């Protein structure tokens, strides 16, 4: 039985992760640690600890870190010191230096570090990776990606806090698409150009709209629309799509297409009926903790995606392309 806990309840995925852990066979969900009274108030899944030391003393084998992004380094450092394997939410940190330190502290301690990129476990995206490996569309020339959604402040205000989150829509969304593209291409980003704005939600303290262009070392060019452009009454949290242009064809991937639309009393809701990549990600992480297989997604993957997001801010500020 693998004993797993959650550190922090700030992230919107904490509740979903807890439900998955409580449902998995051969996993004991120990509970959550959260120092903020207002966040742990009303929490009913597993035991609630008021600090990380208490969760560590409960003898967890592994944890999922769901704190604010600027608190990742402190939590991971403490966990690594206790010899506990870590699945850390994305982006890895708010600075490249801290993200690199997260990777290094886990390496020094000899603990596993996985970045929470659930789309690596999405069947349509796995098939997309196979199509590219088989050159079904020829040599890849370009990608067009979107990762849009509502501004998440109604769920967690800190997502639009430049200190706690490190930025806005760019930090929230660019990392997912960059990670998918790195995985598909087996190629590293080398240059970034970004244009950001606050056309959506102009009173926000961070950018709420943006288009980021990424050039990979093999010459592939990708554009990413990362905007919080959905209205407050939009039926889902967000969505992700990628269109791939090759020398012999084009194909489009929409991993969230498996859904039903439900209309009721003037409201619309999208009900997912297909594969749950979050569950597959957590199952993979637990299997790696048990030694059943190596991690498919690592801290290095999180670091590389974070580097691109932070390069986008430098580019937007300078008004010109920058090196990653």
Quick tags:
single chain, 324 residues, alpha/beta, Rossmann fold, Dihydrodipicolinate Reductase, domain 2, 2 domains, globular
Q: Which structural class fits the helix and strand makeup?
A: alpha/beta
Instruction: List the domain count as a whole number.
Output: 2
Total number of β-strand segments?
15
- End-to-end Cα distance: 42 Å
Q: What would the CATH topology of the largest domain be?
A: Dihydrodipicolinate Reductase, domain 2
The general outline is globular
Instruction: Give the CATH superfamily of the largest domain.
Output: Dihydrodipicolinate Reductase, domain 2
Summarize model confidence as the mean pLDDT. 95
Report low-confidence residues grouped into runs of 5 or more. none
The fraction of residues in strands falls at 25-35%
What's the CATH C level of the largest domain? Answer: Alpha Beta
The strand line-up of the biggest sheet is 12-11-7-10-9-8-15
Oligomerization category of the chains in this entry: single chain
Main pleated-sheet profile: 7 strands, mixed
Rg result: 19 Å
Number of helices: 9
CATH second-level architecture of the largest domain: 2-Layer Sandwich
Helix content: 25-40%
